[in-house]
Amino acid sequence: MSEHAHRLTVPKLVPEVPGGTTLAVARVALLALTVAFAVATVAGFEPSFRTQAIVYLFGMVALNLPHGGFEHFNNLRRRTVTFQVRYLGLYLTAIAGFIALLFVAPIAGLTLAIGVAVAKGGYGDLHVMEVTFGADHLQSEFQRTLAALVRGGAVMAVPIFFFPETFHTFSAMMVDMFEPGGLAPVSQYFDLTRWLVGGGFGALVVAHLALGYVRASGTGSYVADAAETLLLVGYFAVVPVVIAVGLYFPLWYSTRQVARTTAIDAEPTGSTTGEGVLAILDSDDTRLVALGAWGVLIAGSVATFGLAALLWTLAPQPLGGAGIPVGLVAFWSIFISIIALPHVVVGSWYDRDRGIWYVP
C-alpha cells in the first residue's frame, strides 16, 4: 500500500490502544448527538431555551463538575506540603483576579472566559492524543499549538458562527450579571465579529489538517486526529450551543481524560509517599483511606459551592436578568470559567512536571 493510501486508512471506532474503549464512548456519544440533532433540524424541531438550559445544567453540574475536582485531587496526591500550599495559593489568587476583572471590566472577563474554554478543551485533547492514538504528525510546537487552537476553538468559534443569536443572548446575560446592559456598546459589531471568527477558525482548521497530512508518517494518528477534528466541528455546528457545550465537557473532555489516565501505567514524576496533607489516602488502613476520601470530597464540595454562593451574593444581577433555569446557565458558565482558569494555568501550565493532564 502506498504512503498516500495508508494515510487515508479509515480509523477504527474503538482504537486498539489503552483507553481505546473509553475513546470510542466519547466518539459515539458526539456522533450520535450530531446525527440526532441534524435529523431534528431537518424535521423542523428545535428544543426550547428552557429545555436546553436543563440539559446544560445536568451535564455541567451533575456530570462534569466531579471530574474537575478529581483531576486536582489526583494531581495533588503524593506531593510535598510545600508544593500543595503553593499550588492552592496560586489557584486562589487566580480565582480572585478573575472575579475582580469581571467586576471591573466584564466584557474583558467574558473574553477571558471564552479563552479559558478554548484552552481547556484544546490542550486537554492534545494530551489525550499524545498518550492514546499518538500525535507523531504534530512535529513542532507550532503544530501542537495549532492543534489545541482548532480542537478547543471548535467549542466556541463554531457556535459563534452557527448560533450567533443564542451566543449573543447568553453573552449579554453573563455581562449583565456584573454590569446590566454592559454588552450594548459592542453588540453592533457582533455580526462582523461572527464572520471574522468563523473565517479565522476555518483557516486554522484547513492549516491544521493540511500540515498534519503533509507530515503524517502512516501510523494512523493523523487520520484519527482529522476524523475527531471534523466530528467536533460538525457537532458544534449542528447541536444547539447550550446543549452542545453542556454535554461536550462530560461526554468528550472528561471521558477522554479518563482514557488518558487509563493509558498511563507509570507513576507520575515528582511523586512522594507518605507526605503532604493527602498522605492519609496512602495509608494501609482502609478505614483511614475511606475517612480521608470522604473528608476531601466534603471539603471540595463546600469550597466549590461556597465560592458559587459568594459570587451569587456579590454579583448585582446573578441571573443576568433572566429567569430560572436559563439565567442559571449564564451564572454557571461564568462561575465554571472562574475555577477553570487556574484549572488550566495552575493545574497544567504551571505544574509542567506532572499536571492534571500528565503524560509521561
From TrEMBL:
Listed InterPro entries: Blh_diox
Which protein, by its recorded name, is this? Answer: Probable beta-carotene 15,15'-dioxygenase
**GO MF annotations in UniProt:** beta-carotene 15,15'-dioxygenase activity; carotenoid dioxygenase activity; iron ion binding
Biological classification of the source: Archaea, Methanobacteriati, Methanobacteriota, Stenosarchaea group, Halobacteria
Q: Which organism is it from?
A: Halapricum desulfuricans
Q: Which cofactor does it need?
A: Fe(2+)
Q: Which GO terms describe its biological process?
A: carotene catabolic process
Q: Report the catalytic activity.
A: all-trans-beta-carotene + O2 = 2 all-trans-retinal
| Function summary | Catalyzes the cleavage of beta-carotene at its central double bond (15,15') to yield two molecules of all-trans-retinal.
Q: Does the keyword Iron apply?
A: yes
